[in-house]
C-alpha cells in the first residue's frame, strides 16, 4: 500500500471521477463482488455471469492497485501493491476467482479509506491556503479606495481592512485600532490587540512588536484598520508556511528511512518464502498444486507489510499538521522525530531567553536622600545621549522622575568606551563605567560605590556611575532580563525529560552566569563567537542528540550543526525559516514545551504502530500456514492498516487548547 506523500508519483491522485475516485472504484468492486457471490450461491446463475461479475471486481478493485504497482516496479521497487496483485492473479490462475475478488475488494477499500483518513491531516494544512482573500482594498495616493487582486499588491501599498474581514497581506498597522484573530497563522488562541505604529520607518524591521504587526489570512475584529504592506503575497508568512509544510514530508524520519530500506529486502524475502510454501506443499505435503498455490497466496497476503509501511508516515503527517495548527512549523518527519528523542537543549540568550532589550533593573543611590536627584540627573543626560543604552534608560526612568525635579543637560559629550559628560545647572556631570571614574578620580571613588558596582556586575548588570558637581549620586544597573515565561519553560522541559539545559551566548560570561542562575540551567557558556557555538554544540551532543534554540540569524551555524535547530519568532525572520528544522511562528518561547511534547507523542505513536504492525504479521503468517482463508486474512490485514492510521490521527487532537498550558505569555515589551 502506498505511503503518504506518494499519491502523485504512484497515480493515486488521478481524479477520474473526482478526488474520491478511488473510494468510488472500491465501492464498485464491493458491489460486483456481492453480485458475484449472489449469482454463484443464491441464484445459481450461469458460470459466465459469475465470472463476469468477479472479473468486474478485479477491474474496479485492481485499477488503482495496478497503477501503483507499475509505478513502483518502474522505479525498481516491489511494494505491497505488487504483492497483492500477485496474490489476486495467482488466485484467479487456480480458479479461486471469489477469493481473489474479496482480496482486491478489501484491499482497495482499505486503501481508499486510508487515503481519506490521511487526507484529513493533509486537508488541515491545505485549508490554510483558503484563508487569504483573493482581492484587497487599496487606498491610493489620491485617497480613493480601489479593489485589486492580492497578487498585484506591492510593498508600500496601504490596504484598508474592514471590520470582521480577513487580512489580505502581511504588514504593519498605520491607522485604526482593532483586535485580530491570528490563530490560523501563529496558533495564538486569544485575539491580539492592534494599534498604529508610531514610526512608519520601522515597518520593515523584524523587531516590530506584535501590537503593530499583522499577517495575511488572519481575521480582523470589529475595528477598521489601514495596513502598510511589507511583503508580496507570494512571500507572506501564510504562503511560506503553506509551501514549507507541503514540502515537509520529503524529509523522511530516521525510522521511515529504515523501514524503506527494510522493505527493499523484506519483499524479495516474502516472495522467496511464498515459493518455498508452494514447493513444500506440492513436493513434500502431497497437496494438489491448486491447494498449495492458494495457501501460498494467502501467506503472501498475510506477510505483506502494509500496516508497517504506513505506520511512520501517517504519524509524521498528522504530527506536522497538528504542529502547524499550533503555530509550530516542523520541516519534515526527521526533525519532528529527532526532537522527540533529544535529552539536551542549548539556548541562545539574546532574543531567545531574553527579549534582547535592555531594561533598568537597579537604582542604587549613594544615600537614600539622593535617589530623586540620581534619577533626574541620569534622565537629563541620557535624553541627549546616543549610546546604545540611552533609549532604555530614558524609557524606564521617565515615569520615575519626580515632578519639579526635571533638569536640562547641555554640552553633552560622548567619551568612547567610557560614558558621557555634560553640564547641568552649570556644573560638571559625568555618567559612565568605573574605568571612566578611576581615570577621572583614581583615589576618590567611594568604596560603597565600588562595592555596589562589583555586586551588580556579579549579577550580570551593566552599570553606570552618576556624579554631579563632584558628588557621587549612585549607581544604576541595566540588563537584558529574561522573559517572564523563560523559567516556567525550562521547568516544563525538564518535566518532559530534557535533562541537560545549557546557555550558549556571545555575551560576557558573568551575564550568561546570571541568566542561567535565574532560570536554573545546568551550565552557561559565555563569550562565544558563532564558530565557538558550533564547537560547543558538538561537545554537548550525546547519544540522543542536542537541540539548539536561537533566533535563526547569528545562531544559524549552531542550529545547522545541532541534531535539530529551533528558531524563535520565525514570523519576523525569513532567515529563521530557512535555517531552522523547527520554527515557532511567533516570538513565544512558551510554545516550545508543546513542540517537544508533540514530538514525544509522535515518536510514541510511531513505536506503537510499528509494534502493532509487526505483531499482526507475526500472528497472521502462522495462521495462514495452518489454513486461515484469504477472506479473513485480508480483513485482518486491511483492518490493522486502518487501525494504524486511526491511531496516528489521534495526534490531530493532541494538546488542543492546551498549547500554552501552565505558562503565561509575556508580550514583547515596547522599545521606547
Verbal overview:
By secondary structure, this protein is α+β, with helices and mostly antiparallel strands. 49% of the residues lie in helices and 15% in strands. The protein has 23 helices and 22 strands. The strands form four sheets. Strands 10-22-21-20-11-18-19 form a seven-stranded mixed beta sheet. β1 and β2 form a beta hairpin. α10 runs antiparallel to α22 and α10 runs parallel beside α23. The N terminus is likely disordered.
Which structural traits does this protein have?
672 residues; alpha+beta; seven-stranded mixed sheet; 22 strands; 49% helix; 15% strand; elongated
Backbone CA Rg: 33 Å
Helix coverage percent = 40-55%
Unreliable stretches: 1-15
Q: Proportion of β residues?
A: 15-25%
Summing up helix and strand content along with how strands pair, one would put the structural category as alpha+beta
List the helices and strands and how they pair.
Layout: H1 7-10, H2 21-41, H3 47-74, H4 80-93, H5 97-126, E1 135-139, E2 145-149, E3 158-161, E4 171-175, E5 178-181, H6 183-186, E6 192-194, E7 213-214, E8 219-220, E9 225-229, H7 237-246, H8 254-284, H9 289-303, H10 306-325, E10 328-330, H11 333-339, E11 344-347, H12 349-353, E12 359-365, H13 371-382, H14 390-397, E13 409-415, E14 419-424, E15 427-432, H15 434-440, H16 447-458, E16 462-468, E17 471-479, H17 486-495, E18 500-504, H18 509-519, E19 523-525, H19 530-540, E20 546-550, H20 556-561, E21 564-567, H21 574-579, E22 582-584, H22 592-625, H23 630-649
Parallel strand pairs: 11-18, 11-20, 18-19, 20-21, 21-22
Antiparallel strand pairs: 1-2, 1-3, 3-9, 4-7, 4-9, 5-6, 5-8, 10-22, 12-17, 13-14, 14-15, 15-16, 16-17
Amino acid at each position: 500500500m502506498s505511503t503518504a506523500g506518494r499519491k502523485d508519483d504512484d497515480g493515486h491522485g488521478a481524479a477520474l471521477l473526482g478526488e474520491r475516485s478511488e473510494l468510488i472504484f472500491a465501492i464498485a468492486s464491493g458491489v460486483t463482488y456481492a453480485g458475484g457471490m449472489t449469482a454463484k450461491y443464491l441464484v445459481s446463475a450461469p458460470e459466465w455471469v459469475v465470472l463476469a461479475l468477479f472479473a468486474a471486481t478485479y477491474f474496479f478493485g485492481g485499477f488503482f492497485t495496478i497503477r501503483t504497482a507499475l509505478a513502483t516496479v518502474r522505479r525498481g521497487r516491489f511494494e505491497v501493491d505488487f504483492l497483492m496483485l500477485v496474490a489476486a492473479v495467482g488466485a484467479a490462475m487456480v480458479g479461486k476467482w471469489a477469493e481473489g475478488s474479496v482480496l482486491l475488494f478489501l484491499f482497495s477499500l482499505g486503501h481508499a479509506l486510508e487515503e481519506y483518513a490521511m487526507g484529513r491531516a493533509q486537508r488541515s494544512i491545505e485549508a490554510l491556503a483558503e484563508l487569504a482573500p483573493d482581492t484587497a482594498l487599496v487606498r491610493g495616493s489620491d485617497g480613493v479606495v480601489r479593489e485589486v487582486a492580492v497578487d498585484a499588491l506591492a510593498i508600500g501599498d496601504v490596504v484598508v481592512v474592514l471590520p470582521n474581514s480577513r487580512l489580505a497581506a502581511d504588514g504593519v498597522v498605520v491607522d485604526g485600532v482593532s483586535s485580530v484573530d491570528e490563530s490560523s497563522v501563529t496558533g495564538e488562541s486569544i485575539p491580539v490587540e492592534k494599534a498604529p505604529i508610531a514610526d512608519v520607518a520601522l515597518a520593515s524591521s523584524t523587531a516590530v512588536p506584535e501590537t503593530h504587526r499583522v499577517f495575511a489570512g488572519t481575521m480582523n475584529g470589529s475595528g477598521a484598520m489601514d495596513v502598510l504592506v511589507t511583503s508580496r503575497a507570494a512571500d507572506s508568512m501564510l504562503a511560506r508556511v503553506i509551501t514549507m509544510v507541503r514540502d515537509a514530508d520529503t524529509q523522511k524520519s530516521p525510522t521511515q528511512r529504515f523501514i524503506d530500506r527494510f522493505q527493499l529486502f523484506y519483499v524479495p524475502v516474502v516472495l522467496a518464502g511464498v515459493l518455498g510454501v508452494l514447493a513444500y506443499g506440492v513436493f513434500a505435503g502431497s497437496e494438489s498444486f491448486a491447494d498449495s498455490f492458494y495457501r501460498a497466496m494467502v501467506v503472501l497476503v498475510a506477510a505483506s507489510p502494509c500496516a508497517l509501511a504506513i505506520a511512520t508516515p501517517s504519524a509524521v503527517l498528522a504530527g506536522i499538521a497538528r504542529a502547524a495548527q499550533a503555530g509550530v512549523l516542523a520541516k519534515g518527519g526527521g526533525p519532528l522525530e529527532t526532537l522527540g528523542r533529544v535529552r539536551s537543549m542549548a539556548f541562545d540568550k539574546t532574543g531567545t531567553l531574553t527579549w534582547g532589550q535592555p531594561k533598568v533593573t537597579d537604582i542604587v543611590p549613594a544615600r537614600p536622600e539622593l535617589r530623586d536627584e540620581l534619577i533626574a540627573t541620569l534622565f537629563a543626560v541620557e535624553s541627549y545621549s546616543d549610546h546604545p543604552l540611552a533609549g532604555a534608560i530614558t524609557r524606564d526612568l521617565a515615569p520615575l522622575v519626580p515632578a519639579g525635579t526635571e533638569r536640562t543637560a547641555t554640552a553633552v559629550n560622548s567619551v568612547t568606551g567610557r560614558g558621557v559628560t555634560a553640564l547641568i545647572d552649570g556644573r560638571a556631570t559625568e555618567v559612565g563605567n568605573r574605568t571612566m571614574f578611576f581615570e577621572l578620580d583614581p583615589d576618590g571613588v567611594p568604596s560603597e560605590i565600588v562595592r555596589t558596582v562589583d555586586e551588580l556586575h556579579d549579577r550580570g548588570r551593566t552599570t553606570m556611575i552618576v556624579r554631579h558637581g563632584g558628588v557621587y549620586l549612585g549607581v544604576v544597573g541595566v540588563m537584558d532580563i529574561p522573559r517572564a515565561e523563560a523559567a516556567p519553560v525550562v521547568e516544563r522541559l525538564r518535566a518532559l525529560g530534557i535533562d541537560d539545559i545549557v546557555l550558549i551566548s556571545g555575551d560576557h560570561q558573568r551575564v550568561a552566569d546570571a541568566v542561567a542562575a535565574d532560570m536554573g540551567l545546568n551550565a552557561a557558556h559565555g563569550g562565544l563567537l558563532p564558530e565557538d557555538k558550533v564547537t560547543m554544540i558538538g561537545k554537548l551532543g550525546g547519544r540522543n542528540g542536542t537541540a539548539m534554540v536561537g533566533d535563526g540569524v547569528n545562531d544559524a551555524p549552531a542550529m545547522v550543526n545541532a541534531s535539530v535547530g529551533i528558531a524563535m519568532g520565525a514570523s519576523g525572520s525569513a532567515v529563521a525559516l530557512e535555517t531552522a528544522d523547527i520554527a515557532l511562528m511567533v516570538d513565544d518561547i512558551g510554545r516550545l514545551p508543546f513542540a517537544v511534547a508533540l514530538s514525544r507523542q509522535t515518536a510514541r505513536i510511531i513505536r506503537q504502530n510499528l509494534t502493532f504492525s509487526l505483531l499482526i504479521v507475526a500472528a497472521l503468517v502462522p495462521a495462514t500456514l495452518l489454513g486461515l482463508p484469504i477472506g479473513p486474512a485480508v480483513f485482518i490485514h486491511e483492518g490493522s492498516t486502518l487501525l494504524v492510521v486511526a491511531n496516528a490521527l489521534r495526534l490531530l487532537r493532541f494538546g488542543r487548547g492546551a498549547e500554552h498550558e501552565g505558562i503565561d505569555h509575556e508580550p514583547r515589551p515596547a522599545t521606547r
